[in-house]
From TrEMBL:
GO molecular-function terms, A-Z: carbohydrate derivative binding
Gene3D superfamilies xrefs: Glucose-6-phosphate isomerase like protein, domain 1
Top-level taxonomy: Bacteria, Bacillati, Actinomycetota, Actinomycetes, Micrococcales
Xref: PROSITE patterns: SIS
SUPFAM superfamilies on file: SIS domain (SSF53697)
Domain SIS, chain residue ranges per copy: 31-170
Keyword vocabulary terms for this entry: Repeat
PANTHER family: GLUCOSAMINE--FRUCTOSE-6-PHOSPHATE AMINOTRANSFERASE, ISOMERIZING, GLUCOSAMINE-6-PHOSPHATE DEAMINASE
Name listed for the protein in its UniProt record: Fructoselysine-6-P-deglycase FrlB-like protein
């Protein structure tokens, strides 16, 4: 019997992301099931899926497709006249998502974007966009999250060729320039990349038990910048506000901003998180206190 190296599943899944994005971009029938332009939409999920929902909501509304809100499934205010609810979940077994969809069943049209095609959510939603090719074995989610976002971006008319090329270039490289060894990480975003910042912080916490924080870029200077110091990293997804880099560097902290598609930059973070976990003797495929799906006792 061959021993499986720590993080082997996560590594295989993060490496496969560009291919999965391309498949999602070609999933025209699935994209057609998502709410039409002009519909008022709530997008719900838990953990990683909630953060991806935030990114989709910002992208959809800013693209002129209609008012779009994102909620943690446990805290969703869906009785506000929404035309549809999109439920995002890798496993399709998350308790809060199942309870929410069951509660609104027959009253508000629901579309599930689901990784596990055998999950109970498939039969609960009105329409199911199934992406079994993006499902994962690792508890720490990488591929499904970004592939769902690729699906959403393609459904809004975005061409993902540049994002895919950027991700391939990131994965072809081997040097992450010392990012693995920082004492602390703060992740920042603007607009749709705020969700990516929150997701990056969660990934680093889950995989390597690291001290991470995340904020909207413009809010960072309203207090959180106090944590910046030598040996710490402030990582911006997408374009940074004017003057922020200089302010962070004046604290002695390192400011990181890569001029690539932010989704591809999240792939870079995935690799940094994995490498940090492994060098600490941790296995992100089986992180402390976590399981693939949160199923609550009755």
């Amino acid at each position: 019997m061959t021993d499986v190296l720590p993080g082997a599943h996560m590594r295989a899944e993060l490496i496969s992301q560009p291919e999965a994005w391309a498949r999602a971009a070609d999933l025209r029938d699935g994209q057609a099931l998502l709410p039409n332009r002009g519909a008022r939409v709530a997008v719900v999920g838990c953990g990683t899926s909630w953060f991806i929902a935030q990114s989709y909501a910002a992208l959809r509304e800013n693209a002129g497709f209609g008012e779009t809100d994102a909620f943690a499934a446990s805290e969703a205010f869906v009785d506000r006249g929404y035309d549809a609810v999109v439920a995002l979940t890798r496993s399709g077994t998350t308790t809060e998502v199942l309870e929410l969809v069951d509660r609104i069943r027959g009253r508000i049209p629901t579309i599930g974007v689901i990784g596990d095609e055998s999950s109970p959510l498939v039969s609960l939603v009105d329409e199911a966009v199934l992406m079994p090719f993006a499902d994962e074995k690792s508890v720490v989610q990488t591929r499904f999250a970004t592939t769902a976002l690729a699906l959403f971006r393609a459904s809004l008319g975005e061409d993902l060729a540049s994002a895919i090329a950027d991700a391939e270039a990131v994965l072809a490289g081997t040097d992450d320039d010392g990012l693995r060894d920082a004492e602390q990480y703060t992740f920042l975003g603007r607009g749709w990349t705020i969700g990516l910042a929150h997701e990056a912080a969660l990934k680093m916490r889950e995989s390597s038990q690291s001290w991470t924080e995340s904020y909207p870029s413009m809010d960072y200077r309203h207090g959180p910048i106090a944590i910046a110091a030598p040996g710490r990293v402030t990582w911006q997804f997408g374009e940074a506000p004017e003057g922020l880099s200089a302010q962070v560097e004046a604290t002695g902290a390192r400011f990181v901003q890569h001029p690539i598609d932010p989704m591809a930059d999240l792939v870079r973070l995935h690799r940094v998180a994995l490498d940090r976990a492994v060098v600490r003797g941790l296995d992100p495929d089986q992180p402390r206190n976590l399981t693939r799906s949160v199923i609550l006792d009755a």
